[in-house]
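I had to read the description of the data format several times before I understood it. For illustration, here is how one protein appears when written out as sequence plus structure tokens:
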Amino acid sequence: MKLQQFTDHCYAFTGAVNIGYCQKDGRGLLIDAGLDDSAIKKVLKQLKQLDLPLDYCLITHAHADHFGGASYLKKSLNIPVYAPLLEAAIIENPILEPIYLFGGAYPIEELRNKFLEGPPVSVDYVIVPGENVIGPFTVEVIDLPGHSYSQAGVLVEEILYAADSYFGHEALNKHVIPFIVDADNTLESLERLLHIRCKGAIPGHGPYSEHFHEIVMENINVHEDKLKALYQLIESKREGETVENLTKEFLTLHNIHVKNMGQWLLFRTTVTAYIASLIRQGRVRFLLADNEPKVVAEH
């Protein structure tokens, strides 16, 4: 994990999961906290070596790879934590993620791992879209839902910490079908990114860029292509198909072979999010027959 400086006050610890950092007037602000204790300890070690302050932590959204280190941070330094309201509910009760992935039933042990359920953290302050003051920092919180329910982007001076509203090229290629909970919100957030004025942006997974609009457009194209491919798959099933079978065929179509239940449920959530978008467009619907819900194309 490497500390990269963008402006006099804005930095990021870059790695598999980027962690934003800002310092001003002797105060320091972290934006996200990494996956676990190990990640945040590396951050704290570098801050100490560089004699940089740390006083606040803002969590952009309630996925374990972005808040998993906050528990250690709070216990060791008693630092106040900030987060959007709905994300805060999950951060404080992280079992909610495996619960919703498992369809609302109490999750099996296989799903209760550090990648899907981070340690619970008490959120001290709720951030809202618009201007928020955190110590000496005036940050603009930008509503960027889609990947998560109320994910926040954070604009500090001229730098946009974009969370997982978009993915870098390498991350897009790795995941093939990016995780989302709402396809329409995802596309609206990506469109919003194209109109934000800033010096540069850094996503949760990917490099900092002053020309980030190109990769944002690539993200838009990925989701539009996935929506088109899924609709064509549904349209080919004249009598309809279940979400589970559509997920299986959609993964096979993209040459994806899942290795565990958690991974499969993440992909199913994305497929369901695409289906929900197609339903809102009036292009598909659910048909319940013989106690089996199937997705059918409208003709």
Observations:
- Residues 213-235 form the longest helix (23 residues).
- The two ends are 52 Å apart (CA to CA).
- The chain is about 35% helix and 20% strand.
